[in-house]
Fold each of these.
Amino acid sequence: MTEGLQFIRKKEVALISIVVIIVTSYSMLVYQQYIAEQNIRNNIFRDYRNNQLEITKALSEHVSSDLRLISSILQGLSDSAYLQQGELYGDRVAKLMDERFDQINNISKIDGLFIADKNNIITYNKVSAGQRSFVNIDISLREYVNETRNTLDPVFSNGFEGIDGAYKIALTYPVINRESDEYLGMVGVEIPSVDFFARYGNVYNVNSQFLVTYDRNANYISTPRTNFIGKNLFSDEIQRFFNFNVIQNKYYQDVFDGNLFGGSATYDFGTGERLNTGYPVSVNDVTRYFVFIITPTASVYQDINETLSEERSSFILLIVGITAAIVMLILFLVKLNTLLNDQVKKRTKDLQESNQRLKIANDQLNVHDKMQKEFINTAAHELRTPIQLILGALEASKYETKNEKQRELSNIIIRNAERLKILAENILDVTKIESKTLEIKKEIFDLNSLVLDIIKEYKNISNSDKRIKFEYKNLSNNISFNVFGDKNRIGEVIMNLINNSVKFISKDNGNINGSVNQDGIISIIVGKRKTYNKDTNVEQQEAFVSIKDDGEGIDLEVIPRLFTKFTTKSFQGTGLGLYIAKNIVEAHGGHIWGENNKDGKGATFYFTLPLNN
């Protein structure tokens, strides 16, 4: 009896010990899970913050590049032969201003492009639709006007309220005679600040990640809180709104003073926590503006919580499995369990070491890929500004000389500079495609008219030394039809395909075709066709364009990778044009393909676009 009681007591002690061990183990597992979740939360937030810092820096460089490009266009205008001779108005100046106005508008929407004489009187003013033109108006009261005249340097103005009540920034360039150093006046452009910075991020909604920008005086020039625009960040009105937040104020002051590059701040001023990353916008090594990306951390933690929820579910399933295994095996497999634990630890250590090696290798690959993309993107941006300056200077000098030999040399340089400009723009397009930031600005336009305009333009500005005959046919009997898309991007596709055809037309083709006045023929057909939409089960119409040449045709080795990057058999190209064309067409919901002609002479490329019904 006594031995039985002892056995029962020992059994009870053993069971209690097992329960204690299980509870203790589970408690430790839960605690470890909690620590792991906290580490995961911190790591994800840190990665998000670092990513936002990189995005802010890239955005700052993008704004800087666009501002430099606009300034270089103004410089080219200032250095033009007409303005250098003191001709600040007239028909010739008007034509030149129209061209530069369109160039700048392709970079950013502007309110007006103007010329002012040395007395600060506007002599010519080209404005956007709906804007009022000001001529013979004295603009001496504008701060940027006096700054331009006093410094004789390009000026990137602080924010100011325009006559129409909209907030703006201005870029100016002095007109100084190169021979006498006489100040003749200035050229400038006024840009609506909110519209300008809206191209780079959200400036309208504070409930998601948004963009805020300031001028050099810490005045708002764009923000979703429109009542703040034009006001100083450190004014009593703004500070009261932010409850005089010390962390926020110190962070902004450090960025404005140039004491902090690549930093961030997280704070709550009463309406929710925010993650703020800022960077100065510098042009010619001088800070002109400041950009900040602000993210409500609630949206960040929402993603983190979703990730942790998945981890927690996996953890619970693991606990359930372990419990079942313990109940079934603990009494029978104690020794085996000890051995198994040793094996698990060994395997875990091996796996961790393997994962660490993989992580290091992956980090090295990511760094290499990031450096490569940053270099290509920066190089392409930096190429655009000097190319534009070279073209502007050459155009100006070409018309100043009467020497035909010099003009011919200038034309050669201009043609090759244009090719270099196209290459830089192609590289930029590729980086935008790969980073999924390629902008498509859709509008309704006549595809028929666009093709005719491009053929006419190509004939007028063609830099090819080949004699090309164009044949054009509209299968819709010259009836115009509309498509909904980005007119400039579709024009880029057509020019790429024409240039591709010209590239593979031999200069000896004239003898083959029996004509000494041409090297080849490019036939362009525009029309409509019916197609079946598998998603909607509806028959619909689409526009198509075909571009046929009688050149060398497509090399059979190239056909399988025709529309991939760097695919070319020609020493004249980089192999980017067809890749860019494919991505533009597909972004519109169309298709593009190419094939050799059945008669063995040349090739034909086709692309389709949805019609605007």
Amino acid sequence: MKTNRFYKSIVAVMLASTAVFWTACTDAWNEHYDVTQGGMSDQPTILKNIENDTELKQFYRVVEAIGASDLLNSSQQLTLWAPRNLSKIQADSIIKVYQDDVAQNLKWEDNRAVTQFLYNHLAQFTRTVSSMTNDTIRMMSKKYMHLLGKSSSAGTIDGNAFDSAILSCNGILYKTDNIFRFFPNIKEYLEQRSDLDSLVQFIKSFDEYELDEQASVAGGVVDGKTVYLDSVTVLYNRLLASYGYIQREDSSYSFVAPTNDVWKTELEKYSKYFNYNSKVVTNSDSLLNVHAKLCILMGRFFNTSGSTRYNRNPEDSLVNTMYYERQQHNPRTDVYYKPEQNLLKGLEKVECSNGYTYIDNHGAVSPRSTFFTRNDYPATANRYFQDGIPKNEKNQPTVTVVPTRYVIYDENHEIVKSFDYATITAEEETGHAQLTYQLPSTMSDVYYNIYVVTIPPVSKPLPCWFGVKHQELRSDGTFTNLASYANPYPVSESTDVDNLDIITNSAESKFNNSDLQNLFVSSANKVDTILVQSAVKYTYSGMGAGDGVVKVYFTSMGPSGNQYREKIYTRTLRLNEIIFVPFETEEEAKANAGRFVGLDGQPHYRFDDEYLEEYEKNKNVE
């Protein structure tokens, strides 16, 4: 299957060239190659020379079967190194690859029989040789090969001897005893291994042809859309565009490839995290399948050419391509130090044309370093908060969701850290106000510890009383009734809150002991991380499922009309973010409920700059 568009593009490249490099030893040789002097112009085409050569019988059969006849019979100048005495078995295998890719609806120029066999023996322009030739040339397979001449008709290319310079009107045909080794890039290498079938099939499922507007010929605009007289499409893979261009020759990558056994094991484990409610999620089974497989791939792409941006030597550390997606206050879980001694230790290493493939046969990439990490939901992000209030509530919130910034300075008035926050101010009559967040990135069958980060008042250091309620998705597609989260550390006389007795014992106070069980108090003078609930498990996943399956309501509170309001407490809650920290077991979640725990196993209430600095020094080092 060959279209004229391919030939047009090649001809266009030739016309755009200002000159063709010709190597000659004598004037007679120059004249022989001068078409205007009747040199090669009187010779058969490369295709005809192949057809007439008995040593190239099976090679000619391959050329015919894969639809390359027109190319080798065209007027463009080419150099072909044709393997002589190709066996019938070898020819049949190449033809079979061609037929398989045709069945996969791949275009001719993307067919492996073309790109990895024919193009690997073919170069554009006429490549003559002499005893002085010592050059590197780019084959049409986009691979570079070393061309070394021995005479005007013989030499080696990447160590493969060739001879018999057969002149053609459209180039030169050399004959070689060997099939040239195809040096695959990472993606091409993956496709060569049967033990990586599961990985390869998933990557290929994202292949699609897209319009190349620059290469296409526009014919005008109809109904506001451009109409193309000649549309050119190119093979595009959305997954690789997101994670890493391991199919490109101009990049340098390391890729940790899971074997079929690892793929099966991790798919079974990760699938339980993506149980979707079929009442509200279309194609829930397909979504589960895709997300579980994406989780297997996360953390396996490393752009080693890009590591220099972070002053990193690939031998000292590898930077995952998801680096930019990480929230900056989280640990650098996508950076692996001394990778050959840790992440890559014991893995089979295969050199490819654009980097290295490491064969993972035991699950080298931990989910804790990829998707099974804390989620931080900024309180000011409008994709999470919702206007309005739940039914049966009569009050209207006074809420500011335009980011307000709280800044911490050092003694030199230099900014140490800053936090954006949303404010919730209680109404005078009702004594409280509410803001709703619907959180999308939760997983099923996971035990979450839930935290909130509160910001103290800027002008006057006062604590704020607040409550937290929640709803989650039920099997029928509706949400459960509102329920309050009980404070894991209930407010009591021992709680470090100024003037607690005055607030709770005031004649105007509506707080009683039962209220205190469900109330939280923000710090008056520091950015505070407060545990809201421990070991919360959800039935359904909200990952990639629209708005999400969890709703969290924050209510700023205070005794209505209390004479101490804005004197010993504030009714304005300042929220910086909501944090969900996942654990695999209930016991693990509860054991770590009162603190954050970093990947090094040490408690950290916040992943601050000091912790990150120490963390990066010691992470992944045995």
